[in-house]
Amino acid sequence: MTTALEQMQAFLHDALGERIRSLTFALGEVTVEINGDCQMAVCERLRDDPRLSFDTMIDLCGVDYLGYGEASLDGPRFAVVTHLLSTKHNRRMRLRSFCADEEFPAIDSIIGVWPSANWYEREAFDLLGIVFEGHPDLRRILTDYGFVGHPFRKDFPVSGYMEMRYDEEQKRVIYQPVTIPPRELVPRIIREDGYGPEREGALR
Fold first, then answer.
1. CATH number at residue 37
2. Summary mean pLDDT of the chain
3. Which helix (H) or strand (E) element contains residue 191?
């Protein structure tokens, strides 16, 4: 007997063909991985194929896989992950699209397919520096106008590159390089052997 997920897998393979890099199941949901250069074609097919009918984009985010799983990077560093819903078939899926260029990660905007992607793409651009080509208003959405860098990248320093403060003499807000010295905020805690409820004499 064919389950709904197996049927969906067959539909996806038939609709997307060789564009699929991999297709996996986890936690009752299908994840399809593709290369970013076919992003628009794949999204249009996922929306328009009546067997799939993913008419709603629930979420979109950027991901930095630098040092993923404490292992060396094997494959593209940046990806865009989109969560989709078919209200017609009551099915969900996850689409992971990899950006080819690590130095300048770019991928097609999918606003033309799902207009709700607008602010999500701006967030991924702001926090990870992923450029969404064709986006009508690609600018920062969470950080300040003069912010330097992209704070969700794995190699972004915890204290950042610039700091902002109000200058009493100039009577305005100014930006300057970070002056906070690097320090370890979590103290080391050394406990004696047998610490805890099993320690001799502890209440039981």
1. 3.30.460.80
2. 86
3. none
